[in-house]
Amino acid sequence: FLSQPIPLRKLIEYYSASDFFILPSLWEPFGIVLLEAMACENPIISTKVGGIPEVVSDCGLLVKPRSPEHIAEAANKLIDDEKIRKKLSRKARERSEKVFDFDVIARKVERSYKNYLGGTQ
Hints:
The protein is mostly helical. It has six helices and three strands.
């Protein structure tokens, strides 16, 4: 664990300098770090646990948990195949903007409340 939080500007710099992002979780209900990495155009390599598959969708490669050999295979695939890496990078950024952007989520929540309340304001 880090003794001090990393400033946001520095985090963005680190994510942006990366070719991809690996999150080898055994349990993860959501994983905000996935959204951070996706917003910086990082394709994801992660495990098929908790909410990760829903967050990652088609923006990365998902592997079995407790399987370092599959993580290594996925990493090698992204290292060796620039076309796939760039495609997943683009999809990651698009998904972060279209699905997880604050304004998008706020509109969905507002719409849900309006539907629940019968369309009244």
